[in-house]
Amino acid sequence: MGRTAFGAHDAAFEAAKERLNTLKEEPDNNVKLQIYALFKQATKGPCNTPKPGAFDFVGRAKWQAWSGLGDISQDEAQKQYIDIINGLAGEESPAETEQAGEEASSYKEIKVTKENKVCSILLNRPAKKNAITWLMYNEIVQALDDASKDDSVTVAVITGAGDYYCSGNDLGNFMNIDPKDMPKMARDGKELLRRFVTAFIDFPKPLIGAVNGPAVGVSVTVLGLFDAVYATDKATFHTPFTELGQSAEGCSSYVFPKLMGNTKANEMLLFNKKLTAHEACERGLVTEVLPHDSFQKEVQTRVEYVAQLPPQSVREGKKLVRDQEREDLHKANEKECEVLEGRWLSEECVRAIMSFFTKKARL
Ligand SMILES: CCCCCC/C=C/C(=O)SCCNC(=O)CCNC(=O)[C@H](O)C(C)(C)COP(=O)(O)OP(=O)(O)OC[C@H]1O[C@@H](n2cnc3c(N)ncnc32)[C@H](O)[C@@H]1OP(=O)(O)O
């Protein structure tokens, strides 16, 4: 059976595929066979084709390599594929490998560093105010999954490069789509958003938001699923969903009313009020507002403190709190994604997105 859902390493797998084509030296035949077999296993699952005839030497060698992988999982095959290609690429350009805790990773739109038990995820498209592309959603999910499994990491932090924290969903995700492909785009978007928000609901270690500047849309809503949110006094929090013909996501339809009460939540989610950092703090979305000039240093002190706490104790504590509402959060996520799938197909939404890009083009 082919893959129907994303694997744990999808973004890195795609990047490894591209990297394979850029290797300066061709790998030897045995390595090539191994790469071939892992690719087949990762994309199709265990070998299920008949053994080629005795005189089809190449076909038989490929078949043997693939069937030799037995029934290792598609995720495991992806991982081994990525490791081999990154290993080959690393041998060619050692300068690209690990530097001061920086992962020799294939992330393209985020930057992940691990140092002193802290995994930092930097949203890294400053020229586009860190708007989140489809690739970036996948990369964030992958980075969270990796941080949750890595025993050397006790806390994860998300922050933005440049003057913005994040401008939310990249509106280009919905552009240039043939009208006949819109339903599929909406279905795929729903599935991706569901996986993205699930990664936040179920992240088992402390997750800290370092909101270094304005935050918009989905980057604001998921903050309600973080364990602490530090914001610079220059940050703002804006969820202009109805202006875009869209609707609330990131579990905000459930979390925001709990945090701030219905009328204040409506002010943000229905009537698009942009909050200052201090207002967001008063409403419980932000833990603490810090002066912009010393923001990085102040956040670092707080993160380092959390990083050195007994990790199991912190995880158990987080689980106790999250378990009180985990099911409700998953339900809210499902429901929000379903409603959004319909919104993305609505004329209201299509018009609003066109209008954003038309205005830009006129400037
Ligand atoms: C799988 C799909 C899941 C979807 C989940 C649902 C998510 C919903 C949301 O997140 S809704 C919120 C969407 N975001 C927005 O509506 C923000 C749109 N952007 C803006 O309003 C402004 O760009 C700004 C206020 C963020 C910043 O304004 P300004 O300081 O004037 O800068 P520019 O507008 O010139 O921006 C610089 C550059 O970045 C591009 N850009 C910024 N934000 C986005 C974006 N969200 N999507 C796409 N592109 C964005 C902007 O076009 C400029 O590009 P250019 O230099 O012109 O090429």
From TrEMBL:
InterPro entries, per the entry: Acyl-CoA-binding_protein, Acyl-CoA-binding_sf, ClpP/crotonase-like_dom_sf, ECH/Chromodomain_protein, Enoyl-CoA_hydra/iso, Enoyl-CoA_hydra_C, FERM/acyl-CoA-bd_prot_sf
Places the protein is found: Peroxisome
Isomerase listed as a keyword: yes
Catalytic activity line of the entry: (3E)-nonenoyl-CoA = (2E)-nonenoyl-CoA; a (3Z)-enoyl-CoA = a 4-saturated (2E)-enoyl-CoA
An annotated GO cellular component: peroxisome
PROSITE patterns named in the record: ACB_2 (PS51228)
Cross-referenced PANTHER family: ENOYL-COA DELTA ISOMERASE 2, PTHR43684
Protein name as it appears in the record: Delta(3),Delta(2)-enoyl-CoA isomerase
Record key words, sorted: Isomerase, Peroxisome
Pfam families listed in its UniProt record: ACBP, ECH_1
Record's keyword annotation contains Transcription: no
Top-level taxonomic group: Eukaryota
Primary subcellular site in the record, as a coarse category: other
Single GO molecular function: delta(3)-delta(2)-enoyl-CoA isomerase activity
Ranges where the ACB domain occurs: 9-94
